[in-house]
Design goal:
The chain is α/β, with parallel strands linked by helices. The protein has helices at about 5-10, 15-20, 50-60, 100-110, 155-165, 185-190, 195-205, 215-230, 235-240, 255-265, 320-330, 345-350, 385-390, 395-410, 440-445, 470-490; strands at about 40-45, 65-70, 80-85, 85-90, 115, 125, 130, 250, 275-280, 285-290, 295-305, 315, 330-335, 335-340, 355-360, 365-370, 375-385, 415-425, 435, 460. Among the domains are: about 5-75 and about 255-325 and about 440-490, FAD/NAD(P)-binding domain (3-Layer(bba) Sandwich); about 150-240. The chain contains 16 helices and 20 strands. The strands form five sheets. Strands 1, 2, 9, 10, 11, 12 and 20 form a seven-stranded mixed sheet that branches. Helix 3 (about 50-60) links the parallel strand 1 and strand 2 (about 65-70). The structure holds flavin-adenine dinucleotide (FAD). Flavin-adenine dinucleotide binds near residues 72 and 471.
Length: about 500
């Protein structure tokens, strides 16, 4: 690579990469690979989820040769649409937030259409052994909340109450030293702010974690600060305003269409069924070993494997110190979906909305409407410990158990639902969960090392290495961040 090209790459600021994927063909005409004849590719990208695809696209756009390897038999990781005869069902990510600039740019480049989220029927409740509708909730015996908590519907408790004492005033400094006093168990924090024990119990049903005591309050406040601060903090509001604050979208036809579109933007073709089993890192480059015996040599590797599954890969030299600690201590929550279609309108029988929040096994049932405005399909969404406790069952056993529980808590569903599919993220061996959740005390001790590279050439991307954004946007941001870092070093 010429000195001129190196200078050009070094002048590529993070801002210009992040600002737009269509950014600048600034090293057009250069052929970096030719100077590294000993390498098979410039950069190996492990994992073909959003982070991996975003990294590969960013690198290829700047003339680097890339190989993307994916352990699974499909692309997408936690973007996974079940495409069935009667429709499509998203097992992973669905919602594209208003500020998802990178994801929206990728969708635009790939010609992938974004549409309004489906409308949903409301929730009924089976709580404290009673089945009640939303209008009855406030004065129901099932409602054991205290004071003005009683007026809040169970699915809205967490956001409403936590926002009252969300300590994050500056989103981009959410983990500043003075904030670490809130890096404590989430349930303790809620209790110390006057929430009733019942409110905390009900929040644990809808909160995306294994348990509130194993979740850092500061981590969870960041989730909500992202959603609310753009409206309340001028500086950060300006950053977010460009995206248009109120628009949420889904991918038309399912999120896997976004993945297919992004893969279609690449010059290289991601390899499926290509699990990496070992990565050898040296001062001059890396060599990765695949399960089928193949090897790939590269100058750098961007590894997007969730830390929940990174133990499947032998890294040498072995991770040590803070990096090893960050990987080993990472905890993931999990989710299981059971999708079903109503054979008839069971909700007419009990006169309450078709959706459900329960304090039993099922957590939540989302009742999605079709284009005709009628409830078309249900998504039984089990979270955390409830999802994990079914992971040892076969699919058929799991579906049967879920239907039996639904019939128990809401008898009108009995015999009136047909299961069309289900999916457990805990049982996906390459992901092993839904998302990484920082435990109390980890924001000071683990978080700073989540994204740090190993010997510079082994770099880590993926939602678990996120900063302020979440989900899909965090994954895209992380992939681009590491691609940029590789380019800044000129491999
Ligand atoms: C149920 C659910 C709902 C969600 N809803 C939303 C939502 O509405 N909005 C939102 O923004 N986000 C949502 N998310 C989060 C979002 O899906 C993820 O943050 C994002 O897709 C993660 O992308 P990633 O590339 O970091 O990781 P992944 O998508 O997990 O990609 C990692 C890839 O690495 C592969 N891999 C693992 N091991 C190896 C190996 N040894 N060799 C090769 N490849 C390997 C995996 O198979 C996988 O494809 C949801 C997630 C779940 C599970």
């Amino acid at each position: 690579m010429s000195e001129k090209t190196q200078r050009q790459i070094k002048t590529l600021s993070r801002r210009s990469v992040i600002a737009g994927l269509a950014a600048v063909p600034f090293i057009a005409g250069c052929s970096p690979r030719s100077t590294w004849s000993t390498t098979e590719v410039d950069v190996l990208v492990i994992g073909a989820g959003i982070a991996g695809l975003a990294a590969a696209k960013t690198l290829e756009d700047q003339g680097f040769s890339v190989s993307v390897v994916e352990a699974d038999s499909r692309l997408g990781g936690r973007c996974h649409t079940l495409r069935l005869d009667d429709g499509y069902y998203d097992c992973g990510a669905t919602t594209i937030g208003p500020a998802y600039g990178r994801i929206r740019t990728f969708a635009n480049l790939a010609g992938v259409e974004l549409v309004a989220p489906p409308s949903r029927d409301g929730f009924s409740y089976h709580i404290n052994d009673m089945f009640v509708g939303p209008n009855e909730w406030e004065n129901s015996k099932a409602n054991k909340l205290v004071g003005d908590e009683r007026r809040i519907l169970p699915q809205s408790l967490e956001f409403t109450l936590v926002q009252r004492f969300n300590q994050i005033k500056h989103l981009f400094d959410w983990n500043a030293p003075e904030m670490l006093q809130y890096d404590i168990p989430y349930d303790d924090y809620l209790l110390s702010n006057g929430l009733s024990k019942e409110a905390i119990r009900l929040i644990s049903l809808t909160s995306n974690s294994m348990s509130l005591s194993a979740t850092s309050a500061l981590f969870q406040m960041r989730e909500f600060a992202r959603l609310a601060l753009p409206n309340t903090n001028k500086n950060e509001g300006e950053v977010y305003a460009a995206a248009g604050r109120k628009n949420y979208h889904y991918v038309k036809g399912g999120t896997s269409n976004l993945i297919d579109g992004m893969a279609g933007l690449l010059q290289s073709t991601p390899r499926l069924n290509a699990a990496v089993t070992a990565i050898d890192v040296s001062a001059g480059g890396i060599e990765a070993h695949l399960k089928n015996g193949d090897r790939i040599a590269a100058k750098s590797v961007i590894c997007t494997i969730p830390y929940s599954a990174l133990g499947n890969v032998k890294i040498s030299p072995t991770l040590t110190g803070d990096k090893q600690n960050a990987v080993a201590k990472s905890q993931y929550t999990t989710t299981t979906h059971v999708f079903c279609r109503p054979k008839r309108a069971y909700w007419d029988d009990d006169g309450h909305p078709a959706g459900l929040v329960t304090d039993g096994l099922l957590d939540r049932v989302f009742a999605n409407k079709g284009n005709d405005g009628k409830v078309a399909w249900l998504d039984v969404w089990l979270n955390g410990a409830n999802a994990a406790q079914l992971d040892g069952l076969s699919k058929a056993q799991r579906n049967e158990k879920v239907m039996a529980e639904l019939a128990r808590v809401r008898p009108s569903t009995m015999g009136n639902l047909e299961v069309v599919g289900s999916y457990s993220w805990g049982n996906n061996p390459f992901v092993k969960g839904n998302k990484q959740v920082l435990a109390p005390g980890q924001i000071g001790s683990v978080y700073p090392f989540m994204a740090s590279p190993w010997m510079n050439r082994l770099r880590f991307a993926g939602e678990h290495t996120r900063s302020t954004e979440a989900g899909l946007e965090a994954a895209a941001e992380s992939g681009m961040r590491e691609a940029n870092a590789v380019m800044e070093r000129v491999l």
